[in-house]
């Protein structure tokens, strides 16, 4: 076998039910933390915030709470959190929440030590200055309460600039990997069925895209296969019964593996197209947007017959063991969406119009062209538009 890849993953991972209780036993990367959560009440209602605070106190760490992160975190919120960390002299960050919280906290950790007051100095995309951070990011700890993004395992965070309608990734620095990741599947048990499905499909598409990417390698193929198999086996169960801890554990593992896949391979055009959707329509859950465009997106490449064996393999990984042609993957994906009750999501329910397709295609090309280059065959503008139009309901 001839293959070339690099893999760097310095994060100390604690995985398994109940491992949040072991946080205080770990070597803390500082004495005062910015504790970042969402603006919702679920971490309070379910006791996760109180448990985390107790663990920090037992470890001798003081903290300042920042609880304003949105479902699609925006530039101004990340800047506000970083300014608070500066003001309070926090020397590390703790993220407790879903992927949006982890992404936002990660970028706060990057931005807080920098001399600039404008996060977009360090962004790429269409309007960012693409500067290299002058100072080393603050260390951070990831405590995911959802199974979707794998953000606890990678060094990239997605942030939206609503002024410019750009939703892009920032970071990608070796020093921005989490110092500690507490991956406790028990913390995902309270996620409602609909959002369990949205998040689970996000995890699935990370691995499907990385498996299909031109950047795929032996290491990423090993990781993505296991992740896809876990989603095929456990996602519908987790949606049906949130207290099925075997299913929750399988999905937390699949989500984390998606982070490893993105380190050694890359997401591709599906994520670029969805980021453009939620950049304009921030109320759209990321996973829901991915589901909406997925069948049209993958059908495009199935029809090109550019990766037939890969599609057959992915169908088998999802559980369709008798798969023999690339179209079987589309059937397997559609069946899983139906089993999870997300097979009839409508863009129009979020205000997206069919005529928005060209605008969103232009946005995807302008802001996340890097991902589009990693498709099996690069998408043209017209092909991006057609995928949106074919997905619209």
Please, could you describe this protein's structure?
This protein has 393 residues and is of the alpha/beta class. Helices cover 47% and strands 12% of the residues. The protein has 14 helices and 8 strands. The chain has helices at 42-45, 48-58, 75-87, 99-111, 193-212, 218-240, 245-264, 269-280, 286-304, 308-317, 327-339, 357-367, 369-372, 381-391, and strands at residues 12-15, 32-38, 62-69, 92-97, 140-144, 156-161, 166-171, 180-183. A 6-stranded parallel β-sheet has the order 1-8-5-4-2-3, sandwiched between helices. Helix 4 links the parallel strand 4 and strand 5. The longest helix is centred in the middle third of the chain and has 23 residues, at 218-240. The protein is globular, with a radius of gyration of 20 Å. The N and C termini lie far apart (45 Å). The relative contact order is 0.12. The mean pLDDT is 97.
